[in-house]
């Protein structure tokens, strides 16, 4: 009888039906994955609630979707039910839940909103605008993060108004910045974006924000397109996409709070070999765009906060999630439109030292990102290939991920 009872859960567990991927990616050794759901409309942000339900924002105009899962462990996960939670065509990326799971936050190009949320019934009510004044052209996502180390803080990332947004050289522009807001205060009365505390600025378009287990805040930056240096086109392999560190937000003595990361004047080198008069430049070092002169020189740029790591140009990192023990960060690379041949379109893993909270590779490394899920051939990209965006850790420890070009949600096996 004891043996039969022990076997009962295995007997009841069912294998989820296979959903063939729109474009099957390749997995590195030790990793696997399967499509949990398809037929979505541009899925972007993704979070789990306290009840184990999955929420995703759909940039294709459907707002926010509520998905109940049958989770048999590993990659054996399938959809039990799905419904539209919020119908709002303006919502396009950002999605976050309060630590108690009772407040849902989402963003449009112009504002951040909050709802009272019930994960058991899959319902929302009492919509409020909590942050306003974020409207601009160019980059339209407003990424949201509530750090575990500072549960009353909502971080909001806002990108630039175009490729080179000259006014962002001033803090007062409010663009190309990550700002922090007290959740208690903005739930009581909406705040203008310009009133938030500046965590970092000079960040062209930091779509991905994540927190490591030590409480450190990290962002991944989509750097400039069409770059030239001393009248030479170097854009195909420069500048790098950046992994930036913003310190521990709960630390009152955080010396990185309010740091300037260089944009729109300074960028980090990826490929020094194509620079005119490259001198001693190495990967990861800041340098000036265009023709360095006057108030903006390479020396000026060396005083800006440099990235902790660099990634290949135009690969477009969109999210970063750390594993629970702090030995790795997973980063989605949405992929390029501004280089030949195309690059990105993959999920990668970066090794970290859990004691220091820093990457194991030096800032000059070009090999820090280990590709674990990728397209075998990027020739069909960006419109007809796997293109990852957001990530979330599931209740049983699996990594879930959206792909907006293929309208899928994946679960990744082997990601620990």
Automatic annotation (TrEMBL):
<dbReference type="InterPro" id="IPR054539">
    <property type="entry name" value="Beta-prop_PDH"/>
</dbReference>
<dbReference type="InterPro" id="IPR011041">
    <property type="entry name" value="Quinoprot_gluc/sorb_DH_b-prop"/>
</dbReference>
<dbReference type="InterPro" id="IPR051262">
    <property type="entry name" value="SMP-30/CGR1_Lactonase"/>
</dbReference>
<feature type="domain" description="Pyrroloquinoline quinone-dependent pyranose dehydrogenase beta-propeller">
    <location>
        <begin position="25"/>
        <end position="413"/>
    </location>
</feature>
<dbReference type="InterPro" id="IPR011042">
    <property type="entry name" value="6-blade_b-propeller_TolB-like"/>
</dbReference>
<dbReference type="Pfam" id="PF22807">
    <property type="entry name" value="TrAA12"/>
</dbReference>
<protein>
    <submittedName>
        <fullName>Soluble quino protein glucose dehydrogenase</fullName>
    </submittedName>
</protein>
